[in-house]
Amino acid sequence: MATSQCFENPPSLSSTCGSGNLREIGGLKTYVTGPHDSKLAILLISDVFGYEAPNLRQSGSRGISSSGSSISYGEPLDSNNPNTGRFVDKGSWHGVVVVKLARTDDIQAAVLLHPGPITEDEIKEVKCPISILGAEIDRSSPIQKSKQFGEILSAKPGIDSFVKIFPGVSHGWSVRYDLGDESAVKSAEECHGDMLSWFIKYVK
Question: Tens digit of pLDDT for each residue in 62-112?
């Protein structure tokens, strides 16, 4: 079940921000940036607020091909109307989706940002290099839980993993931060840099 942190600090959505464009991929509306002829891409799974969140779009515009997809079928949560958006009861399902993909041979690497309701059994089945970038203040993914995931992953031969907890930030900090808050921006940019470095290392 979602915690209230999944809905805190709602962004001001904009369908026109960013330099990318909308395409339909696998039946899902997807915000795409980067060269159209690229053979590699990073798939960013949005939170309940969808791919029109400016900070999410910005994190996908760093000189590489990336896709920001909303599994809510283009129906982001309206924080003023709790009956909008699909899968709202799931809250941070984006992390769940990432782990499901990481348990297959379909992706080369994965990064979890504020992971959400993931189980130890699911982590045990991860098959690709995975980085977990967690928040110090996170009710759905407490520090101890992320550390347990790290221990499980460290015991898996041939699977590189990395766990990092960002101090002083809350669930959702990597995409729902205030641009006027210097500390919040610094933490988010550090997180984005770690994420990008992980993908550059493993996505070939």
Answer: 444 444 444 444 454 454 554 444 434 444 567 888 999 999 999 999 999
Contacts of residue 151, defined as CB under 8 A and 6 or more positions apart, other chains included, come to: none
The secondary structure element, H or E, covering residue 197 is helix 182-202
Number of domain units in the chain: 1
Residue ranges in the chain whose pLDDT is less than 70: 1-14, 16, 47-50, 52-57, 59-93
**SS3 for 88-155, per residue?**
HHHCCHHHHHHHHHHCCCCCCCEEEECCCCCCHHHHHCCCCCEEEEEEEECCCCCHHHHHHHHHHHHC
Tell me the CATH number at 14: 3.40.50.1820
**List of residues 6+ apart from 81 with CB closer than 8 A:** none
CA distance 22 to 1: 30
Q: Which tokens belong to 130? A: 């995975």
Domain that holds residue 119: 4-202
Residues 133, 194 contacting (CB under 8 angstroms): yes
The strand order across the sheet containing 28-33 reads 21-25, 28-33, 66-69, 42-45
CB 137 within 8 A of CB 169: yes
Which residues, 6 or more positions from 22, have their beta carbon under 8 angstroms from its beta carbon?
29, 30, 31, 32
Judged on CB neighbours under 10 Å (0-12, 13-18, 19+), 187 is buried
In three-state secondary structure terms, 194 is: helix
